[in-house]
Amino acid sequence: MPAASTPSLADLQARAKSVRKDIITSTTAAGSGHPTSSLSGVEIAVALYFGGVLRHDPKNPTWPQRDRFILSKGHAAPLLYAVLAEDGYFSKDLLPTLRKLGSPLEGHPNMRRLAGVEASTGSLGQGLSLGVGMALAARLDGYDARVYVMTGDGEIDEGQVWEAAMSASKFKLDNLVAIVDQNGFQQTGPTAEVLDLRPLAPRWEAFGWSVQEINGNDMSEALAALQKTKQAKGRPSAIISKTVKGYPIQGLLTSDPNHHGKPLTPDEAKKALELIGA
Amino acid sequence: MKMGKSTREAFGLALAKLGEEHADIVVVDGDVHNSTRTELFGKKFPARFFNVGIAESNLVGVAAGLASSGKRSWLASFAAFVMCNAYDQLRMSVAFPHLDVKVVGTHVGISIGEDGPSQMGIEDVSLACSLPNFTVVVPADEPSMMQAVAALARITTPAYLRAGRPNVPIIYEDGAASFRIGKANQLRDGKDVTLIANGLMVAEAVKAAETLAGQGVQARVLDMHTVKPLDDEAVLKAARDTGRIVVAEEHLLHGGLGSAVAMSVVRHHPVPMRFVGLNDTFAESGAPDALLAKYGLTAADIVREALALAKTK
Fold this sequence. Notes:
The complex is a heterodimer.
Chain A: H1 9-30, H2 35-39, H3 42-50, E1 68-71, H4 77-86, H5 127-141, E2 147-152, H6 159-170, E3 176-182, E4 185-186, E5 189-190, H7 191-194, H8 200-206, E6 210-215, H9 219-228, E7 237-242, H10 266-276
Helix pairs in contact in A: 1-3, 1-4, 1-10, 3-9, 5-6
Chain B: E1 3-6, H1 7-21, E2 25-29, H2 33-36, H3 39-44, E3 49-51, H4 56-68, E4 72-78, H5 79-85, H6 87-95, E5 101-106, H7 124-129, E6 135-137, H8 142-153, E7 159-162, E8 167-169, E9 185-188, E10 193-197, H9 201-214, E11 219-223, E12 226-228, H10 232-242, E13 245-252, H11 257-268, E14 273-278, H12 288-294, H13 299-310
Parallel strand pairs in B: 2-3, 2-4, 4-5, 5-7, 6-7, 10-11, 10-13, 13-14
Antiparallel strand pairs in B: 1-8, 6-12, 9-11
């Protein structure tokens, strides 16, 4: 296992900038995809992979004792790909092949085609159940491996998420963490209008989870919350990560703040990269 | 034919035995372990047995998660519930990443009887066959179910295994008949017609062949326990040697064994065919034998179709 490093906040923010650039560039090159759904989760993903939280080894992606990250909101695949490339799982030269025939960077993650992808997702609601299974397997094997699952806030409309939440509580999976990327939108509009599940924290608490609510676009809050889940005893942990869809380029998307499933045009992408300073 | 155990009971016994042989086998249950007989495993290996409650989607997902961490997952529920309620999870979390998850659907067909149509798995084979990477197996009796479980444990890709509720006659009396995935068992030879069946319709096909022999029609009988991958060679040989085929299954006609055999026949050696199965209908509550008779799933139905075919030259 690689030694856990303690990078500075500035290091992590530089990583986040690089990941954001790759998300925007790859989706604009593809001409399709979900950049805004990817951008909201950057701090959590960067804190997880580069903040010394996730024990993993890009040189040995199938190391059995590794921690696992499942991107249950599979449409944010560009985020996962950008992070894995940043971490050295594969060359950044692959990023421009996103969504193209022959590329392992499919529109939604395919674990059989790309090292580092722990689950094939894209049909919403399925990742947390996979996480429950992985957390049970780690316990059976006597590994202290931890499992982190990122869902969307629209995604948790799916009943399976709550089936999984109940079972994680039953099995006392304190090695399981659910991160709800609460960016406030789903495909056709604000989650508050489509199916308002707020307040989320008491909902997860009622299902037996230990809950933290954070500003998920704040790197130090994201890192602290993820680290704190390692203290869990006898209960699974949920992080309600309140974010902004498209962060931090939401100011460019005023005509459609959701901007769901649409890449930026080359012109918009140029402005976005200037704004980010990437 | 001597009566044996139900195929679900045989499954439960075989799974418990498998647990002794393989420490990496885990079983996930949707709170029906006394019906599916996975309780036999659960009592012996409680640490490797997980009851997720009445939640089929999560049942499948948890089994898939265990499998992707190197466990060998088996899950069981009523066929109607796991195949119909959790189909997207089977598709996306199991079939697409071709994880080592064995899915067992019990209470199949209409022979469950009194509990009625909501509990009857009549489309499960069709659904399972529509999952890429899945092997689909429908054993006829207790000994072949025991062997089917052992055979499926030797492959590391997903599979669907069909198990019935009632006790069924023993076809393989020596208990040691060869069971090879994807290889039909010929139970009787004949030159006039071939009867292809699986599940509890195998016993009916054997009875039908005896009746047909009394009427001068010599029937070959094939136990086609594996629907996918289908034994094309045995089907082709049957078509060539006998020129007529009747397929019998305890399942809807659409998408089951009959459809699979018909596709094979049409591709390789077209001959006249007839089909015995549920004809685009749900059944109802009733005693199993009465239901099988009412919905046309008996030896007499197979005989009728075979004789109709035999008249065609």
